Sequence to fold (688 residues):
Amino acid sequence: MRDPRFDILFEPVQIGPHTTRNRFYQVPHCTGMGYRHPNAEAAHRGVKAEGGWGVVCTQEAEIHPTSDLSPANEARIWSDADIPALRLMTDAVHEHGSLAAIQLVHGGSHAPNLYSRETAIAPSAMPIDWGGPLQARAIDLTDIKNLRQWYVDAAKRAQTAGFDIVYAYAGHDMTILQHFLLSRHNHRTDQYGGSFENRLRLFREVVADLKEAVGDTCAIAIRFAVEELMGSDGIEHTAEGRDVIEALAEEPVVWDVNLSDWTNDSQTSRFAKEGFQEPYTAFVKSVTTKPVVGVGRYTSPDTMVRLIKSGHLDLIGAARPSIADPHLPRKIEEGRINDIRECIGCNICTAGDNTNVPMRCTQNPTVGEEWRRGWHPERIKPLANSQHLIIGGGPAGLEAARALTQRGADVTLSEARETLGGRVTLESSLPGLAEWARVRDWRIGQLNDKPNAQLYTQSPLTADDILSYGIPNVALATGATWRSDGVGRTHKRPLPYLEASNVFGPDTLMANGPNQLPQGPIAIFDDDTFYLGSVLAELVANSGREVLFITPNPIVAPYSDNTLEQDRIQCRLIDLGVKILPLQTLAGLTTDTVTTACIYARNETTHPCAALIPVTMRLPNDDLWYDLQVRKADWADAGLETITRIGDCYNPGLIALATQAGYRYGVEFGETDLTPKREVFKGGTFTA
Ligand code: ADP
Ligand code: SF4
Fold:
């Protein structure tokens, strides 16, 4: 039963010609599924509608071949041939009584047109911002007329495809409508450049065109970034951000407001907490009578109620919270608040889109597999009379236990340490990563009230123990250990000088804290490319030590570009006074120095250093697996039927891979037909 204090979240809201059944609004977000995987895309959005999101949007939909974002895999509405693929999505959303929205985009100088080979366009001649040393040409008045027509044509196709809401999108520094508005992009001297009203002209015209073209049956939404967090060089919510809303106040039937660029809009929990956009978007409702939707990684229903009651928002927008829990609204409606699988703000999802593949989610392992493998975030096939012993209570073990008990199997989980959570427990105690504990806590919460789950801590198991238990199915989720011998991407052989006592592996540092380190400068050698090296640098710097950050890469944590945090990570280390030594590899270590070598010139430099922390790669904790393999002859007598390695114990990787491995073990156990479906190109579009 729903708690009456959340009733306000389930009020219908009028959006132009349509009414949304509640205030939950999945704003446009990319998935990496896009036009190349339309069945997967449709199934993903359909699960959101089923889960109670009253409005479900596409990702950005390219309106024309001059807006070709290849190799990115967004939505595409270049011609009528794209309509059937988009129809899959609108049907999936409508089936559950939700409204389907499409975010039309012309990417302007953000679209390199690598596939279409068209010339990129912009208000003024500018380099393309990614995709190669290309330039966009300045468009003339005829081009502008054509561009407006492309928007109209795309909107009509969207209408035919069944969309209820059509977006004019001016955000993320990725759209030509925003580029015309921004004086740093728009250097024109005609009626489309110069004054604010001139720079706004195209945006205003396109909104009017869309209304005229499809406004009778489709609601016209505007997505606009009110703040760019770059001072007067960009849009500020106190200046032109506000002016735009005032100027177009009553033009759309719904305002979708946020921050730009994407790295500001989708900040990770390491750098921003729930509601981080509120100071910038709070004013919007005071200058328009139209409904306003905004985002801020909202997962708490109490916060959502506050936002509505305080007149800040009319609709609770969500991208990441709807990915981590597609059934979040339904859970609030059914009074199952503790079942909400809260987003941890890690941005593994954005890394999927940024690497042009279907996204994964750390919290929700079914994401991207709704169609391909038929995985569902809430439903799972029953499995009765099946007994399992899971060794290790990290994300893989906990998720395997959760999925199996949801199926009805009996599960005993043994964890060696005093606390469950494995690496998540260790890592969530590091600076900025506290929300990652949700990976552990949600799973423990789900397991605690299950009579068929027995969880034991302080229970390190040996091969003898396992054989003596007589539980037929064993999953080894014993994790992995960071190497401390330097082997990794750069050094393929162990470095003999790292056998010294002033070398501390990341696991030791995380377990015992920075106070165990000797006095003096501490060097971190980061060859891992993701977050951990930089977080450990923060940890050590926060303890008052001088820190050297040695990396063979040109920048700190390059993979974190994909999680939209590279810039912030590098800035944070600079702010903390960490000395960054890029393009360097290790060449020697003594009790009080570290020697590095330039990866190109090989010239060496020696730096004062009391201890070194190598962050390179991990090795599976698979001793137990091999102990059990040599005793295979004893299995049958012991009643042992299957032993499976899952998660980091099988192959160390991201936490998202561990939860997925746990889920996969759980959902696939006892199943025989496991071949995933594949989309093939047939008759001009991808199909099942
Ligand atoms: P994953 O990411 O694959 O879940 P983790 O390293 O996070 O891996 O978790 C592995 C967990 O397994 C750790 O909490 C560790 O204490 C536990 N573990 C390792 N070996 C044993 C063992 N022999 N018996 C019980 N627990 C173990
Ligand atoms: Fe949230 Fe991380 Fe899942 Fe993205 S991948 S939705 S940030 S938990």
